[in-house]
Amino acid sequence: MHGYSGDKQAYLTRLRRIEGQIRGLQRMVDEEAYCIDILTQVSAATRALQAVALGLLEDHIAHCVADAVKSGGPEADEKVKEASAAIARLVRS
Amino acid sequence: MHGYSGDKQAYLTRLRRIEGQIRGLQRMVDEEAYCIDILTQVSAATRALQAVALGLLEDHIAHCVADAVKSGGPEADEKVKEASAAIARLVRS
Amino acid sequence: MHGYSGDKQAYLTRLRRIEGQIRGLQRMVDEEAYCIDILTQVSAATRALQAVALGLLEDHIAHCVADAVKSGGPEADEKVKEASAAIARLVRS
Amino acid sequence: MHGYSGDKQAYLTRLRRIEGQIRGLQRMVDEEAYCIDILTQVSAATRALQAVALGLLEDHIAHCVADAVKSGGPEADEKVKEASAAIARLVRS
Q1: Where in or outside the cell is it found (chains A, B, C, D) (predicted)?
Q2: Whole-number Cα distances in Å, B34 to A67, B6, B81, B82, C87
Q3: Are B31 and A11 spatial neighbours (Cβ–Cβ below 8 Å)?
Q4: Which of A6, D11, D66, D90 could form a disulfide with B69 if both were Cys (CB 3.0 to 4.6 A apart)?
């Protein structure tokens, strides 16, 4: 069980929509759409992916990190460090 | 003809790989993989999308914007503004 | 007392260095330095600011959010939501 | 003469305002303000820096890159590559 398990179907639906956006991008490149229109769609897909990441992260802090903090011990510190590293990767990507 | 037309196959290959990454994410969510591992893959897909965008943008400046600049007139200003707006969307997404 | 209180001096030192970077940018603009060199310095200052934010966020989760989680109740949910909103602002800025 | 020279005073004013934001951040840390409030101000300063960068970049493309493109030759390619590398640094920072 993970933080996002309760929303699994919602995350799958969002990821399928993003898959559709990526296939739409392939169609645009294949039909030689205007570069700027392709870039607009790339920005939209990037933002959709980031929204999924932010949702997963909130669920993760609310469940996995919170559970580790309640149990205490070195596991708690580890989970905070691990979540912080994931946040850093997101901010820098 | 657009800036990226010569590299069309390379862009399609990259976008198909990103589509595979998104399907991999769906599998991970479906099999209830660990949240942090999913986030790492989301960051990788985001960076891959950004790399596609940066490539398209360079091709666009080198061809469409450059051609408009050589022709001169209001079209040149317009193309620079349009490219700048696309850059801003990328930086902010 | 906040999560970062123990590292207050270190954060002040980093912020003073960033202030120096911003003054350096003013000097570059004033002396009409090459645009690309200015942009390189802007990227460096932006990354330094983000590193400060990521440090503050890790301290915040390790202390304020963790304390709220241990106390339980609606305050815990609130702190997680508040931290998630701050992460979203960082990722999107 | 650079692309931004005509707007030099406006850029200096914006950078001085950002310097003020960074000094405000030092005051907040010194007075032990709430972490989330500091993070909100860091996001605002980051966005202000990015806006300066986007402005400089548009001026740079409209002038330095455009002039090189009109002159033609290897310098034109070089300027496009250099601008693209600066855009990539911005997108990734």
Answers
A1: Cytoplasm
A2: 15, 41, 43, 41, 20
A3: no
A4: D66
List, for residues B21-70, the tens digit of each pLDDT value: 999 999 999 999 999 999 999 999 999 999 999 999 999 999 999 999 99
> Domains in chain B and their CATH numbers?
7-92 (1.20.58.1000)
Three-state secondary structure along B12-72? HHHHHHHHHHHHHHHHHHHCCCCHHHHHHHHHHHHHHHHHHHHHHHHHHHHHHHHHHHHHC
Q: What ipTM was assigned to the predicted interfaces of this complex? A: 0.91
- On whether any CB of chain C is under 8 Å from the CB of B92, the answer is yes
Buried-state track B21-52, b at ≥16 Cβ within 10 A, e below 16: bbebbbebbeeebebbebbebbbbbbebbbeb
Interface size, chain A vs chain D, as Cβ–Cβ contacts under 8 Å: 3
- Specify the residue for token string 């030092």: D26
Query: CB contacts < 8 Å between A and B, how many?
Result: 133
Cβ distance of D58 and B90 shorter than 8 Å: no
Which residues are CB-contacts of A39 (< 8 A; sequence separation ≥ 6)?
B53, B56, B57, B60, B86, B89, B90
